[in-house]
Design a protein that fits this description.
Radius of gyration: 25 Å
Largest sheet: 7 strands, antiparallel
Number of strands: 29
Distance between the termini: 73 Å
Length: about 650
């Protein structure tokens, strides 16, 4: 087999046969049977498909891509004016990477020095990433929404020697941070003031052999990046990731699911923050395959960019899928159009469920789906460019109803699961191996097991090296025998598919001693068009309640469709018909849990959770502890007083 031939995996290296329905075979040794009679695996080892040597670094994967197809497009860059995209060939991108790397060397940055990047998701970030790696540097991402205090912490903790920001304002924040640190040897660059050109000009006198010498020093054990977790609680921790963490996962992922990025028609439009490790991994994954990568710096332009770029697959968080569904529902208005959309949605869900049965969809259901496709589905598919074959969803669980809806309309949602400490994906459903309601089987060559406490433990070559300058925190993150403790609760089924049930630290223990996983209630509720965010509360309380925020973007459309006048979020939070709709949504969510776990009361807040007010992380996760602290009075109001008063 040639080096550039996509691998079509039909059999694992340990002899287990893979099928389209799942990972078939007998249950692993030590499996148990749950209360529903399903066999549960206690441990699962994914097959090792591709072995790499110590020289398979990120720059090496780029070099291989250039050697395979130097004249084919590797990146598409949107013109500043209009909606056209300019292709950059693999050879042209490689030349620009080396020119930029030469400039970084000319500026005096030594092998192993850290360089910070603070910008939106754009071509220049990817260029700086690969140039830094080629020069043997350690690129350190900083979220473009970070405060001066956060910037200061990262600069000090990572020993950053140079920083490239997007705007002059961000640059001044970095300068102020260095003044407070009394660090006067920092080099500052801004993309808005020709940072790339300045760096490349500096490298005009540096021979390309000097760049290659730096690249050749790298091994898979070399540090590739330090990613600071945005953190839902406490001070951020610097997650140390090596080149091998990225490359072993990337090459095995290509072998495991070649349908995603090994085809020449593969197109990925990145719009999630490149400061987030999953987006960083995906740029390496896409560029080491055969497809094309694009960027969208401003999500306000996402829909037109999707239309013009026409991605073959999408990477999203569940909130995006919820918004698309709710927007389509709202645009249907009322009357006949509303009934048509709801009918089509029910057909999509039914069709998806039928796909999971041995006999498949009936002839009548297939005919109904074909009609729904002409009337409704085709319009939704055009919203994402009309070329997408599937969606990869991660960051939070997606409701099974929405997963079936998208699958039924012809855009299967492949849910995945991962953490910063695992370079993103631990497990993911693939086009051939998928079970709705799970986050898929572990990616090769990772191993997953469930602890006695129900926590998901992971071991494998993509697991991080430790937290920078935090040896105690690193030790606490692993079991004595080397398994990484994810902090997530879950289960493995007999086929090795992972299910997430909640965060260990978020488990609520009621006054009656009942353990409640908030996610099982929050996730279905977030799919309602009126709801933006939900935080379930009730720790040490007599019953479970929920704080709910309204979706300001969807509110006016919902009011109009229900024959109600326009009103503010504040007015809607106490309006009887709005509250009735929310109570009905809560009733539906409660059907999936026991009475002791059910939500008894809700409190509708007039303030949403956002990055700006500090209640959402840049990866759109709710900072639960801060929400509980900031809205403690609202929670006490639900229960008639603080915990200690009630216990007294």
């Amino acid at each position: 087999m040639s080096d550039d031939t996509p691998l079509d995996v039909h059999e694992a290296t340990d002899g287990r046969t893979l099928s389209a329905a799942g990972l078939t075979g007998s249950a692993p040794e030590g499996a148990s049977v749950d209360s529903d009679g399903h066999t549960q695996a206690l441990e699962w080892h994914a097959p090792v498909l591709v072995r790499i040597d110590e020289h398979t670094t990120i720059p090496y994967l780029l070099q291989r891509r250039v050697q395979r197809s130097p004249r084919r497009p590797l990146i598409a860059v949107k013109d500043s004016m209009g909606t056209t995209w300019r292709d950059i060939t693999a050879a042209a991108f490689y030349d620009e990477v080396r020119s930029t790397a030469a400039g970084l060397i000319a500026l005096g940055l030594q092998h192993g020095d850290a360089i910070a990047i603070m910008a939106r998701t754009r071509y220049e970030w990817t260029l700086l990433d690969f140039a830094s790696w080629a020069a043997g540097l350690i690129p350190v991402p900083i979220y473009e929404t970070s405060s001066g205090e956060q910037i200061e912490f990262i600069i000090k903790d990572a020993h950053v020697r140079a920083i490239v920001t997007e705007t002059v304002t961000q640059l001044e924040l970095a300068r102020d941070a260095c003044r407070r640190l009394k660090q006067d040897d920092m080099q500052f660059f801004s993309l808005d003031t020709e940072a790339i050109q300045t760096i490349q000009d500096a490298g005009m006198t540096v021979a390309r052999s000097a760049v290659q010498a730096r690249t050749d020093q790298l091994l898979t054990s070399s540090i590739a990046t330090i990613v600071y977790t945005s953190g839902t609680t406490g001070q951020p921790k610097g997650t140390v990731l090596t080149h091998g963490n990225f490359t072993e996962l990337a090459v095995n992922s290509h072998a495991w699911m070649p349908e995603v990025a090994m085809g020449k028609d593969s197109r990925l439009l990145l719009f999630l923050p490149l400061a987030h490790v999953f987006a960083r991994f995906l740029q390496v994954f896409q560029m080491s395959g055969e497809g094309i990568l694009g960027h969208t710096p401003d999500t306000k332009n996402l829909l037109p960019d999707l239309l013009s770029f026409r991605p073959s697959y999408l990477l999203v968080v569940p909130r995006v899928l919820e918004k698309i569904y709710n927007s389509a529902d709202a645009k249907a208005g009322s009357g006949v159009k509303k009934k048509l959309f709801r009918w089509a949605a029910s057909i999509a869900v039914a069709y998806s469920h039928a796909l999971e049965t041995p006999e498949g969809p009936s002839r009548a259901l297939s005919a109904q789906r074909a009609l729904a496709d002409r009337l409704v589905f085709s319009k939704i598919l055009q919203l994402v460019g009309g070329n997408a074959k599937f969606i990869i969803s991660g960051g939070a669980p997606l409701s099974t109803h929405l997963a079936h809806f998208y699958t039924g309309l012809g855009l299967p949602v492949l849910e995945g699961y991962g953490l910063t400490e695992t370079v993103g994906p631990i497990s993911v459903n693939t086009p051939r191996l998928s079970k709705i309601g799970t986050v898929g089987p572990p990616l090769p060559p990772l191993s997953v097991k469930i602890s006695d406490e129900g926590e998901i433990l992971v071991k494998g070559p993509s697991i991080f090296q430790g937290y920078h300058n935090k040896s105690e925190a690193t030790a606490e993150a692993f079991t004595p025998d080397g398994w990484f403790k994810t902090g997530d609760l879950g289960a493995l089924d007999r086929d090795g598919y992972v299910r997430i049930t909640g965060r260990a630290k978020e488990i609520i223990v009621t006054a009656g001693g009942k353990n409640v996983a908030p996610a099982s209630l929050e996730n279905p509720l977030r799919g309602h068009p009126l709801i933006s965010q939900v935080v379930v509360v009730g720790d040490q309380r007599p019953f479970i309640s929920a704080l709910i925020t309204l979706d300001a973007d969807m509110l006016q459309g919902w009011l109009k469709n229900h024959g109600l006048p326009a009103m503010s979020v504040s007015e809607a939070s106490t309006h009887v018909e709005v509250l009735t709709a929310l109570e009905k949504a809560v009733e539906r969510a409660n059907q999936h849990v026991s009475r002791a776990e059910a939500i008894r009361k809700i409190k509708v807040l007039t303030t949403d959770f956002t990055e700006a007010n500090g209640l959402l992380t840049p990866s759109l996760k709710v900072k639960r502890s801060l929400v509980l602290q900031r809205f403690s009075e609202a929670i006490d109001e639900i229960y008639g007083g603080p915990v200690q008063d009630m216990q007294g």
